[in-house]
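Q: How do we represent a protein-ligand complex in a form that can be generated token by token?
A: Start from the inputs.
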Amino acid sequence: MTKTISFILNGDEISCDIQDHWTLLHLLREELGLIGTKEGCGNGECGACTVIVDQLAVNSCLYLAADVQGKQVQTIEGLAVHTGSLHPIQQSFVDNGGIQCGFCTPGMIMSAKALLDKDPKADQEAVKHALAGNICRCTGYVQILDSVAAAGRQMAKNQGEGAAAAKDPGTITQQSMNKKAGEVIT
Ligand code: FES
Ligand code: FES
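Then emit the structure tokens for the protein with FE2/S2 (inorganic) cluster bound:
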């Protein structure tokens, strides 16, 4: 049966027609063209299809599209959209060798983001737990874990700087100067 759903996708409200049996993965990749989210196993084993729904990392291959009605969905495409630069987790995977073929990377990054958004200071055990459902077939996991840890440090630092600037609105940081000048923040 066809129905119309509305939800927030990467910060924008959208409405679309879906079939009852469609998965969220099908909707994202085949209907909306968001092919950053990958299909690996298709049955909840590999984590390649991970996206964030209302702050939780989910396997989109097991999540019915109809169930995102009224919810917030974030995919890998939404991470850099509003700043014009890579998200700290994306940058960290690049800087720390967390990527080889890259097939698992969007899912890894979305699982990491769901964790670090809540707790950028998450310890290694928490990171391992958050990524337990994400499989990489290219390499070991050391550089992936290092990438997430470094991203967490950067996000905690960014949060600290944001809080300090909010306490002292008179402080002119390079970032606020760039914003005033209308430049893209890097
Ligand atoms: S494609 Fe969804 S868990 Fe593997
Ligand atoms: S980088 Fe190739 S599967 Fe993980």
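The chain has two domains: 2-78, 88-167. The helical segments are 24-31, 88-95, 105-118, 124-130, 142-167, 174-180.
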